[in-house]
Amino acid sequence: MGKSQYVVVMLACLWLPSTLCQTSSPQHEQLKFRLAGYPRKHNEGRVEVFYSGEWGTICDDDFTLSNAHVLCRHLGFVEALSWSHSAKYGAGTGEIWLDNVMCSGSETSIDKCLSRGWGNSDCTHEEDAGVICKDERLPGFLDSNIIEMQVDENRMEKVRLRPLSAAHAARMPVTEGVVEVKYKEGWSQICNVGWTARNSRVVCGMMGFPSERIQAKKPNSHRSVYRIHSVACSGNEAHLSACTMEFSTNTSSACPGGGPVVVSCVPGPQFSNGRGRKSKLNHVSKVRLKGGAKAGEGRVEVLKGSEWGTVCDDLWNLQSASVVCRELGFGTAKEALTGARMGQGMGPIHMNEVQCVGDEKSLLKCPHKSITAENCKHMEDASVKCNIPYMGFEKTIRLTGGRTQLEGRVELLAPNASSLEQWGLICGDGWTSREAMVACRQLGLGHASSGLSETWYWDSSNVTEMVMSGVKCRGDEMTLSDCQHHHVVSCKRAGAQFSAGVICSDSASDLVLNAPLVEKSVYIEDRPLHLLYCAAEENCLSKSAVRANWPYGHRRLLRFSSEIHNVGRADFRPRLGRHSWVWHECHRHYHSMDIFTHYDLLDLNGTKVADGHKASFCLEDTDCHEGISKRYECANFGEQGITVGCWDTYRHDIDCQWIDITDVKPGNYILQVVLNPNFEVAESDFTNNAMRCNCKYDGNRIWLHKCHIGDSYSEEAEKQFELYPGQLNNKIS
Description:
Elements: H1 3-15, E1 21-22, E2 32-36, E3 44-51, E4 54-58, H2 65-74, E5 80-84, E6 95-98, E7 114-115, E8 130-133, E9 146-148, E10 159-163, H3 166-170, E11 176-183, E12 186-190, H4 197-206, E13 211-212, E14 226-232, E15 244-247, E16 262-266, E17 287-290, E18 297-304, E19 307-311, H5 318-327, E20 333-337, E21 349-351, E22 383-386, E23 397-401, E24 407-413, E25 423-426, H6 433-443, E26 447-452, E27 466-468, E28 501-505, E29 511-513, H7 515-521, E30 523-528, H8 533-537, E31 554-559, E32 562-566, E33 582-584, E34 589-591, E35 595-602, E36 608-615, E37 623-624, E38 646-650, E39 658-660, E40 667-675, E41 690-697, E42 702-709, H9 715-722
Parallel strand pairs: 4-6, 12-14, 19-21, 25-27
Antiparallel strand pairs: 1-7, 2-3, 3-4, 3-8, 5-8, 9-20, 10-11, 11-12, 11-16, 13-16, 14-15, 17-18, 18-19, 18-22, 20-22, 23-24, 24-25, 24-28, 26-28, 29-32, 30-31, 31-39, 32-38, 33-34, 35-36, 35-40, 37-38, 40-41, 41-42
């Protein structure tokens, strides 16, 4: 359609309101869609369209299920189940972009349907249309599946605590202050007449604090502009904008008999002054977050009995997510995420259709249903992003020399620096992707993609002094100073080119071993030596094999299958490019990693009695979940890796898929398998990389019992596992 024709059609739509026209947007206009409203499930809500730089709604006049089908596909769902009228999910704000929309249902875009034209409507927001989509995602659709507060920025753009004094402002986090609301170019206050502790609870939750203090100090004299009056919250709202309140159109409005609202909040144990950021919750929590890049975000997991499991996202909303956040010492939930947005868990799914009111002390106290395998899959695991206090961690770290803001040499503000110019480097000795995880978290840049121990190619700064060395992190710390490090800097390799660097990313892989398959597939084979020449070349036999009478005799092998799943949000790729891969003539394929998995047999004291490894795994997609295509194949010098939602299977009958136990005596042992043991490739979570089993070997046969991922048991159950006395018989219950 030419420009003049487009104008004529649009004018016809404007002059003749009863005329239905094709809704086509200008070619340069990229439409965006989202579901809004409160409360709702992730697959339902008020439909909002981003057009001409502004979010707006769709009127329910002439709305049909066919319209809903087109809109649900825009939102990443396969089809619509139903639709709603009369602003069922609350009245929207801004423009009503479309009215009298009429689709056949087969259109690829809403702008192919008939309507009155963009921005031409005689509706009010009380007629906003909503949809309920079938909870099944379109294959390959990666847009966020998020439930969040839709805040009317014309009423409440931003909320902050203004510290009561300069001394208060210098301490992080700021736990007490005057509540101020951003309005146009300035900030206004809230009149405290009728203000309650429930209101304070909501504000503290937004600031990242789990609870409020009853008494708050009075502010110093300060000219106040009151725009908000008569606030009334239940205390369970995720955002102040969800409370009822009155707005004053007069910016010089007074607060008769009162003054500005001041709140005082109680920080969680991770953020308490003087407690240290390594402090743990003062009780053994039965809820945890896994797989998140930042503090206060991750997949929700709960402990039932002795095993951790996930939560299904049916009915998951901000109230339930906020209960999780407060229980863990954070504020309210900023986002409630569905569709395994923080990666898929493994093992049981403990809860479904969780319906918290918001004042529960624990998620396990909320009404919910137990589930069966038919109800939910791990692709429906629920996640949260919690409000956390602002700590200013990013002010003491920076990246230099990188091609983008996500990469570069890591520089730290020198301890006790009196000037912002006193920056220093981190020694690259021992620097791995675990340390990079913490650096990226402190920078606020998400996950780590790589941790680099040499950065000669990023030499663009005049900073040359090392200010930190010997850094060793668990991976869950909030700052690098929380990690172990040398008290006195000691670096084996001098020079800025040997300082640490990182590449950060908004997503990461996460490898997990299928523990039940190991338990089911284990057996012993006495394999003739003449069949083990390739295995010996790749160091897959114990040291005593060199003294064997080759090619006569045999080796006793503990064999099992490994199925390694990528349950993260990014493909697992080898660190080295294919130009650095090593060709192994014996097995006729390229190896992309030096060591990818350790297999260890330990005695009950934890001492290694036998070991094995897959020297340089050949990484490929053996199989994938429905709707996901394989990307990686070793054959013909193909690309290597494991796609998200796929797994790499190493059958029990291939070379090196074993532990050589020729020299092991009968007894009770622990079998341990560790993926990516040297943290060579970054992952979102390293705590689930180890799998352990109780093992009984009677000299002829072998049994495995209680195979589990390293962090899937409660602390008490893990202690009982380590005290394993051995089987009284060979019957595994």
